[in-house]
Amino acid sequence: MKPKKVPQRTCVGCRNVKAKRELVRVVRDPQGSIDLDTTGKKPGRGAYICPSLSCLEAALKGGRLAKALESSLPPEVVEQIREKVGRDG
Predict the structure, then answer these.
(1) Which has the least CB within 10 A, 2, 21, 59, 87?
(2) 45-55 b/e with 16+ CB inside 10 Å = b?
């Protein structure tokens, strides 16, 4: 039997490829609101970040997170992401 393939995703902050479950997903849903996706199954455009503040800051500073989501990030969403990353990292 073949071993099961583990889904891989790239962090928009550090550009390292990791297992999907190791990363935090930020999603822009079809209505345009941006939120954290804890299940990894919400519909919409997603971007992945390592659970570290350095990766988050790199993604925000370079504008890569906003570009990946094709939308600007409201400050309250950025704070929510910082809280989640701070707990996990």
Answers:
(1) 2
(2) ebbbbbbbeeb
Element (H, E) at 51: none
pLDDT value at residue 62: 87
pLDDT value, residue 38 = 83
| pLDDT less than 50: residues of the chain | none
- The pLDDT value recorded for residue 17 is 97
The full set of domain ranges for the chain reads 8-88
The answer to whether residues 8 and 19 touch, using CB atoms and an 8 Å cutoff, is: yes
User: pTM for this one?
Assistant: 0.87
Edge-to-edge strand ranges of the sheet holding 45-49: 34-37, 24-28, 45-49
Q: Which CATH superfamily is domain 8-88 in?
A: YlxR-like (3.30.1230.10)
